[in-house]
């Protein structure tokens, strides 16, 4: 069943839904990357929660006009209008009052969501409201999704991607250096507004699949995941899209196999799995890589300390140091240096003496900065500089060059 | 003395203004209800290297930002090469203060310089090899060619400043506006930057920089503009950069050691 789901063997509708969810995921991951680079990730939370009153009002209006309150285009239009209202409130609060953006986000998010929940409760009491299933917009559900719904979502995702392609340079410029962008004639406020418009579009398109509570996760987790793998903004955006797409696809496919579980949480959990893997395994920024780097560093310290102890014929008490020396073939099990060990030890000691000169001589101030007890001096100084220092120490005794 | 924008005799003749790469008239900028720049006139001569000088909070940076439309002035006009700013943006390159961006932003040195070419490439145009070559040659000009593929987070303060200058150079502009380009940079970088600015001048371009180090004004610049919310003095260094004008601009805020240094410089 699971394999069937992932390979899209569950029928035409499920396949269509999976395609829509994939496009939505790519769009969300990429849009979220710009938001993350602009350091305004939390604004998406305010926008998504602001959609709820619009859903409720749109339903009531459509029923009042004698239509089907559940028509998706109408509900999406309502949610977009109310998200826009939330965005305007947020902008007004930040510009006209002394509230910081985080506080304004909290205020807008909770008030709009509260109003939305009240509206949903009112709808429950209406005769047409019993079967409305509007609560599915909270956590998302693909069960019983119509073919046209899936097409709306897929087309919406594609439209968002096209808009991102056109706006990618101004958005990137504004995210990195808004002042410079403004000096070049970019209307920063308008670019920010366009970015928010994209977030709103992702939220609205994603309402049915992911739901408004968790769409923020599909916006943010992919770019945060991508950041583990790259140091370049354009790749954060591309990898973010890839992660979002994978999460959307796997989530929708699994949800088709298990229709009782809401789709949103499954998609978000898929994204989280990718995040967790990246956190652990990414080279450079991942936890495992950092651990390995630290262990290697520790080994270098132990080896160096051991060699210096050997060179000065001091006993080595640290078990780990002895084991490392033995494994490197520098000492025997009883801690006595081998031939190779004696040579390396003498060289380490000589380096240490050279460093001593370098660190006390003001002429070598710049080089002295590199001293950490581990760095070989010939990676810092040229051979003629070293020769000059050796002349001061006196000829090295019994050290192979 | 209250300076009126329309005061005759003080405002340079109209054709001098028309010829100027940057002419400002009656500029007032206010954050909240306290004017940061009040009714200021400025005429930058073509091909000059002009220093904008004044104490902290005198409105130096604000001046530049208002000229570029980054902050909205309350009143006043800005003309660039005798035209409204909007028509001439392509001819202006701006080097903001280093601290104005987050240097942990995930990007490489070359990508920052390429941002200087975004306007030219357009929304849908492709960045081609020729663009990258141009960006590299700009990095070369500030001595940073070897750092092109480096992460910007790994740069020192001076290197960051050079990258910003390279981004401005990539625009191939006629007027360069720099905000404190020498603040917190090492001596080698200061030398490299001034060499580039002087070569720009020799190509006939105009350079305007907010500058804080009074001791180097004479060596680096040929024109000064002294400001402390209001315009204090403006003109060739020999005429406008004097003990009297500095006293007027800085008032009691010039530390006695600075005064000593200056009298040495001015002597």
Provide a descriptive summary of the structure in words.
- The complex is a heterodimer of chains A (401) and B (267).
- With 401 residues, chain A is an all-alpha fold.
- Chain A has two domains: 2-279, ABC transporter involved in vitamin B12 uptake, BtuC; 288-393, no CATH class.
- Chain A is built from 18 helices and no strands.
- The longest helix of chain A is centred in the middle third of the chain and has 30 residues, at 147-176.
- The mean pLDDT of chain A is 88.
- Chain B has a single domain, classed as Rossmann fold (3-Layer(aba) Sandwich).
- The longest helix of chain B has 16 residues, at 187-202.
- Chain B has 267 residues and is an alpha/beta fold.
- In chain B, strand 9 (223-228) and strand 10 form a beta hairpin.
- Chain B has helices at residues 14-19, 60-67, 85-88, 109-115, 118-121, 129-141, 157-170, 187-202, 217-220, 237-240, 243-250, 256-266, and strands spanning 22-31, 34-44, 49-53, 75-80, 83-84, 92-95, 175-179, 206-210, 223-228, 230-236.
- The chains are: A mainly alpha (401), B alpha/beta (267).
């Amino acid at each position: 069943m699971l394999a069937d789901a992932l390979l899209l063997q569950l029928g035409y509708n499920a396949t269509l839904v999976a395609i829509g969810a994939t496009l939505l995921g790519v769009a969300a991951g990429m849009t979220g990357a710009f938001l993350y680079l602009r350091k305004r990730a939390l604004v998406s939370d305010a926008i998504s929660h602001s959609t709820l009153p619009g859903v409720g009002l749109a339903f009531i209006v459509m029923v009042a006009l004698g239509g089907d309150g559940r028509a998706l285009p109408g509900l999406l239009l309502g949610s977009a209008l109310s998200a826009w209202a939330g965005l305007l409130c947020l902008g007004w609060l930040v510009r006209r009052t002394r509230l910081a953006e985080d506080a304004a986000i909290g205020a807008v998010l909770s008030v709009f969501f509260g109003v939305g929940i009240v509206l949903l409760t009112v709808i429950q009491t209406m005769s047409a409201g019993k079967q409305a299933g509007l609560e599915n917009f909270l956590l998302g559900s693909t069960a019983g999704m119509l073919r046209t719904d899936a097409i709306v979502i897929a087309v919406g995702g594609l439209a968002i991607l096209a808009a991102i392609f056109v706006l990618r340079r101004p958005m990137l410029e504004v995210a990195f250096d808004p002042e410079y962008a403004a000096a070049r004639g970019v209307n920063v406020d308008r670019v920010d507004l366009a970015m928010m418009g994209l977030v709103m579009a992702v939220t609205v398109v994603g309402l049915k699949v992911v739901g408004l509570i968790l769409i923020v996760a599909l916006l943010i987790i992919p770019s945060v995941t991508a950041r583990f793998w790259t140091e370049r903004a354009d790749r954060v955006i591309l990898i973010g899209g890839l992660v979002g797409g994978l999460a959307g696809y796997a989530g929708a496919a699994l949800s088709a196999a298990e229709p009782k579980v809401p789709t949103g949480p499954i998609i978000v959990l898929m994204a989280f799995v990718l995040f967790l893997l990246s956190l652990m395994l990414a080279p450079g920024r991942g936890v495992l890589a950092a651990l390995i780097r630290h262990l290697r560093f520790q080994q270098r310290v132990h080896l160096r300390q051991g060699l210096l102890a050997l060179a000065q014929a001091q006993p080595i008490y640290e078990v780990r140091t002895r084991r490392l020396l033995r494994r490197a073939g520098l000492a025997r099990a009883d801690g006595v240096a081998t031939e190779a060990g004696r040579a390396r030890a003498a060289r380490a000691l000589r380096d240490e003496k050279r460093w001593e000169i370098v660190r006390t001589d003001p002429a070598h101030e710049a080089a002295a900065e590199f001293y950490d007890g581990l760095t070989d001096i010939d990676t810092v100084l040229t051979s003629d500089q070293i020769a000059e220092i050796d002349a001061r120490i006196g000829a090295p005794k019994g050290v192979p060059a | 003395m209250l300076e009126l924008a329309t005061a005759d005799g003080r405002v340079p003749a109209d054709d001098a203004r028309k010829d100027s790469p940057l002419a400002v008239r009656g500029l007032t900028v206010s954050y909240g209800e306290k004017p940061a720049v009040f009714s200021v006139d400025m005429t930058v001569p073509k091909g000059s290297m002009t220093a904008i000088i004044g104490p902290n909070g005198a409105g130096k940076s604000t001046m530049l930002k208002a000229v570029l439309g980054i902050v909205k002035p309350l009143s006043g006009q800005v003309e660039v090469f005798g035209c409204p700013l909007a028509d001439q943006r392509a001819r202006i390159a701006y080097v903001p203060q280093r601290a104005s961006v987050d240097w942990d932003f995930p990007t490489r040195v070359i990508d920052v310089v390429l941002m200087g070419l975004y306007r030219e490439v357009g929304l849908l145009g492709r960045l081609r090899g020729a663009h990258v070559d141009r960006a590299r040659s700009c990095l070369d000009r500030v001595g940073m060619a070897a750092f092109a593929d480096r992460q910007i987070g790994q740069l020192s303060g001076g290197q960051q400043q050079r990258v910003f200058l390279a981004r401005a150079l990539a625009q191939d502009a006629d007027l360069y506006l720099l905000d404190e380009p020498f603040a917190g940079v090492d001596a080698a970088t200061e030398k490299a930057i001034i060499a580039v600015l002087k070569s720009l001048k020799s190509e006939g371009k105009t350079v305007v920089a907010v500058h804080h180090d009074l001791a180097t004004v004479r060596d680096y610049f040929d024109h000064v503009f002294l400001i402390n919310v209001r315009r204090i003095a403006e003109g060739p260094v020999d005429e406008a950069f004097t003990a009297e004008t500095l006293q007027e601009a800085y008032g009691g805020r010039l530390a006695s050691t600075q005064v000593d240094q200056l009298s040495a410089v001015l002597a």
